[in-house]
Structure formats: structure tokens, C-alpha cells
Amino acid sequence: MPRITHSSPSPPDAAAGEERIVEGVGVAPGIVIGPALSFVGETYRVSEERVDDDEAEAEIRRFEQAVKRGERELNKIASLARDKLGESSAEIFQAQTLILRDAALHADVKCLIRDESYSADFAVQTVMGRIRKRMEASTSEYLRDRAGDLVDVQNRLLRTLQQSKGFSKIETGRIVVAENLTAADLLLFSRRDVLGCAIDFGGPTSHVSIMARALGVPAVVSLHGFSNTVEGNETIILDGFSGRVVVNPTEETIAAYRARREKYQRGLEARQELVPLPAETKDGHQIALRANVELEQEFPLLEKYGAEGIGLFRTEMLLLAKGQPIDEEEQVAIYQEAIRAARPHPTTFRLLDLGGDKLLPMAHREHNPFLGWRGIRILLDKPDLLRPQLRAILRAAVDGPARILLPMVSTLDEVKRVREHLTDAVASLQADGLPHEEDVDLGIMVEVPAVVLLLDRFAPEVDFLSIGSNDLTQFTLAVDRGNDLIADRYHELHPSVLHLIAQASMAGHRHGLSVSLCGEMASNPRVAPLLVGLGLTELSASPAFLLDVKRAVRSCSKAKMAALAAQALEQPDAQSVVTLMNTWLREHVPELAVFFDETA
Ligand code: PEP
Ligand code: MG
Fold first, then answer.
1. Integer CA distances (angstroms), 397 to 331, 338, 406, 455, 549, in order
2. H runs (alpha helix) in 170-277
3. What predicted TM-score, i.e. pTM, was given to this entire model?
4. Where are the chain's structural domains?
5. Span 275-596: which CATH code?
6. Which segments of 229-309 are extended strands (E)?
7. Mean pLDDT throughout 533-548?
8. Which atom of ligand 1 approaches the CA of 518 most closely?
9. Is 49 helix (H, G, I), strand (E, B) or coil?
10. 3-41+171-267 belongs to which CATH class?
11. Alpha carbon nearest to ligand 1 atom 1, residue
């Protein structure tokens, strides 16, 4: 249950306690200074809370709304379970719906709110706790087994109740400190003008980190238990470049960080000179630099940073932001906006990549979500999600070039089935008499090693390829991309990953397909020469990093980059590749070797 505690802002000169420095991983650039807001997600305990007498009826309405929302969620889960697992699995959720509707439960909760002035949350916890104890102590085995369902229902209600009041009460201008955050949580915080976020878990390719970059919210992750050590009344400096967090900074420290921030701002302004220049190596090879976008608010950044279109539109983030599926008309409007911002260059719409760490509230729990029901697997099982999205893209494509990109493909059959859906979508638009494009390129994310190994068989079925190095790395090295315990083992520069990238790039070009790389490594200017050297001709990066990537592309000849790549492929491990790359950068592009000194 999200529990939110505010630490009141303390003026820097009145900072209480000793200055302490904690090191994590900087994943979204920027330096912010401000008061902490501690956020505890998914702990379903609420402390005793009372409300004023005149608030009791509003509390009861909050409870009733939470029940309604719970019912809607359970209905969706039941239908999902029915589709995938059969009627008997759906029964569990129907039983939970009956608990939610139980008249005695409602009467007891309302009574506690009215008579004891308890908040709806605490009343729910108290009443359901009592029922659960009775069930657990029962002589009936059946009733004892059902106690678990009661806990699920209680958690569902408490989560909804806490969300309904949690985010709207947050003061603006805070640095969120949390054990864990989802991309959807961060979106909600951003509406309260959050300054930055510091998270115990996660890595650079976790979707909360990607969302932080999209929103321009400086962020540090992998802070290992930091959230437990922050108390109220503490001022924090968060450095999204170095990954450093300073608690209770001295005035001297604050002054030093303010100076760094100004230097960074000046550097940003200087980079604007690169906008009109081509992304071309010294020996004349053009590289298409496109933008990764997640939200509509990023569309103006295409022009600001000179992006050649959108290489990856993570459309699922729109849905996460809204908390529910978006209808066809709404999708058409957003997609048209994207296409207008990107044209004459293409907009690459990745179909909804749900699952993994991008979960909807009504989602199933899975033990291995990244290896589970994700991306194209969900879409093919849920044509009610796939069909409107295909239709919306075909309709929006009338306004300019569009491409469709399939997420998490692992078998050829998945591509063929989407092609059939695409043919149906065209036919249905014709039947409806709606203007649409018939011929839109269809490509696949190359992010499962099996696909790289069989690319010669995939190539004739697709129009382009886009390498998803974030997932490709986690699947190749068997290292969960969001698990901070093994974050030091997650390495996109591991030679095995580089070999797969080189193989994918060669196979694509052999078949005359364009090959892009849109994982987070494409946003790292220090890595750009290596990627160009591996044969990539398109890179798609977070908009704010595009100019630095362009500078890297322009800094040297492709021939020298290819020589670097050839040596990198020979290395035994990731550390050797990093050492090789740093030596190469110092020799050939010293301005990139000091890239981080410049920004920090
Ligand atoms: C990837 O896996 O590299 C990718 C670009 O997709 P996502 O990060 O959304 O999984
Ligand atoms: Mg991916």
C-alpha cells in the first residue's frame, strides 16, 4: 500500500544531522536539491487513522468507490483467466467478487467509520482482519483455505483506497525516496512536479528509469536500502549523472552542486549548435539518429534535438499513464500528433509491450514476468487490444510515414499471425469507409537471442529490424535487467551481446533490411563509435542524448570505429571491452573520454 510521509522542507542552512553521501547509479541526468518525500509502495498495512465527524460520509463514499473499482478489476482478471486457463480458474476471482459484495462486510466497515471515526482504510483493515482470524481458526478446511482470498481482496481494496488519496495529497517540489517505483507511479508523481527520485532497486534499463528520462526527472537507482535511512526533515541533493545522493548537505556542498548544475546548463546550450549538422562519420557514412519516445509531451523534443523521426514509440506507456486501454479514436489522435512531429521521417510504433515490469493494475502475478506473458504474446491472445491499435496506426499513417514494430517476438509464427491481423484490419477499415494506409512496413524487435540465431528465416517475413539491447542483454546473460542485486553483472558491452548485435546487423543488411538499435546503450555517446563500428546505420536514443551521440558519430571515421569493434568482439569479458573502449576514446576522441567530467 503506498504510504507517503512528507519530510518538511528544511532551509539548507538549518539542515539537521550530519551530511551523508550514498552512491547509486545515475539513470536520468540533472542535479536537484530539495526536501525528501518517502514513498513506501505495496506494503499493505495502514496505521490507525481517524477522520473528523463531518468527513465520515466522504470516507464511506471512498470505500464504496474502491469496492466498485475492485469489482471491475476482478471481472477483468476473471475474463483473462477464463480465456487463458479455463472456467475453473475464473471461479477463484468470482469468489473474491462475492467477498467484496458481502453485505455484512459493508455494514461493519461503515459502522466503524461512523461510530469510531476510523478512516475507510483502517476500517477495512480492521474488519477484514477480524473475519480472516475467524476463518483461519475454523475447523472447516474449506474456510481456512479461503482466508488467502480474503487477504487478496483486502490488499486490492487498500491499494485502491491509498491511491485515491495518496497522490492527490502530495506536496509539489519533492524528491521521492522509495524502495521501488513503477513507471506508472512515477507518472503520477510527475503530475505533482516531483523534482527527482531516488530508488533502492532497479537499473538503467528498468522502465522506471526510462520513464524518468522521458519525463526529464533526474533519477538515481540501485541505492540498496537507502529509503530506510531517510527520515523527515531532511534535505537531499540528487545527482542524476554520477548517481550520488547527499543527505543533509552542508552549505558548501550545496554551493558546489549549484555550480555544477549551471555548468551543465551552459553545456546544453552549447550543444544546440549540433542540431543542423548531419550525423555523419569523418569518412562520410550517414547514420540515422532517431528518438525513443514514451509520452506525447516528448514530441516537441524531436525538433529541439534534431531527431530524424521516431525510432521507438513505446506506446504501452500511454496506456500505463491512463491506467486502462485507450480506444481507437484516442489512439488515432495521439499517433497523428507523433507522425506530424516526425515527418518527413518515419514514426516507428511499437505495438503495446505490456508485461515484464510494465503491469496494469488488473494484471496477473507471474513468478518470472520478464520471461512470461509479455508483448506480442499478450496481443495475440487479446485481439481486443491488438485490433484497435493496428487500425489506429493504419488510419494515422495517412498523415505521414509510419512503421509497425512487434515487441518480444520469439517465433516466426507470431509474425505471420500479426500479418493476418493486419490484412483483416485493412479489410475492416475499407468496409467502414475510413481513410487509411494499406502498406505500412512491419518490423520486429530483435531482443530474444533465438531470433538472432534464425534471422535468415525471419528476414523474408519482415521489412525492418530493431535491436532491443535492453532485453537482449538480460536474456543473453541471464541477468534480470531490474534486479539491483545483480546489476553489476548486467552488461550491454559483454562480448556475447556485441556478437549478437554484429550478427543481427550483418543478417539484416544481407537481406536488404534497415537495422536500428533502440536499447539504452544507443543513448550513451561513449558507446556510439562501437555501435557504428559493428555496422549499425540507425540508432534510436532518448531525445536529450541525441546531440551527444551525434557528436560521437561525427568525431571519427567509420573505418577506425570498425577496427575498434573488431577488437571488442575478440575480448573475453565486458570489463576488457570497457578498458579497450576507454583507451580507444582517449586516443581518437578525447572529448568523449571526458564526457562525464564535463557534465558532472
Ligand atoms: C529493449 O528491450 O532494448 C527495448 C528497447 O525495449 P524495452 O526497453 O521497452 O523493453
Ligand atoms: Mg524490450
1. 12, 10, 17, 28, 29
2. 183-190, 207-215, 251-271
3. 0.78
4. 3-41+171-267, 55-161, 275-596
5. 3.20.20.60
6. 235-239, 244-247, 288-293
7. 95
8. 5
9. coil
10. alpha beta
11. 468
Q: What is the pLDDT of residues 126-184, one digit of tens each?
A: 999 888 888 878 887 777 777 777 877 887 888 788 765 555 556 778 899 988 887 77
| Pairing mode of beta strands 347-350, 310-314 | parallel
Nearest atom in ligand 1 to the alpha carbon of residue 210 is: 8
**Distance from CA of residue 202 to its chain's centroid?**
11
Asked whether 113 lines ligand 1 (CB < 6 A), one says no
Amino acid (1-letter code) at residue 513: L
Residue 39 and residue 6: Cα distance in Å, rounded? 9
What average pLDDT score do residues 438-465 get?
97
Catalytic residue annotation: 207, 518
- 301-348, pLDDT tens digit by residue? 999 999 999 999 999 988 877 777 889 999 999 999 999 999 999 999
189 Cα to the center of ligand 2, angstroms? 24
Q: Give per-residue pLDDT as tens, 373-412.
A: 899 999 999 999 999 999 999 999 999 999 999 999 999 9
Determine if ligand 1 sits within 6 Å of the CB of residue 468: yes
Contact 503, 446 (CB under 8 A): no
Model confidence pLDDT, tens digit, residues 76-114 = 777 766 776 667 667 777 888 888 899 999 999 999 999
314 CB near ligand 1 (under 6 Å)? yes
| Burial classification of residue 167, based on how many CB atoms lie within 10 Å of its CB (0-12 exposed, 13-18 middle, 19 or more buried) | middle
Q: How far is CA 255 from the centre of its chain?
A: 33
What are 71's three cell numbers? 469489482
Does ligand 1 lie within 6 Å of residue 399's CB atom?
no
- Alpha-carbon distance of 96 to 99, in angstroms, equals 5
Nearest CA to ligand 1 atom 6: 468
Neighbours of ion ligand 2 (CB under 5 A): 447, 468, 471
Q: With a 6 A CB cut-off, is 470 part of the ligand 1 pocket?
A: yes
CA-proximal residue: ligand 1, atom 3 (nearest): 468
Find cell 477483468 and name the residue.
Answer: 76
The Cα-based distances of 207 to 168, 183, 356, 503, 548 in angstroms read 23, 6, 9, 27, 22
Distance CA 218, CA 198 (A): 9
Pairwise CA distance, residues 223 & 388, whole Å: 41
Q: Which one, of 360, 378, 358, 446, lies nearest residue 418 by Cα?
A: 378
- What is the fold, at CATH topology level, of the domain defined by 55-161? Enzyme I; Chain A, domain 2 (1.10.274)
SS3 518: coil
According to the model, what pLDDT value does residue 5 have?
Answer: 36
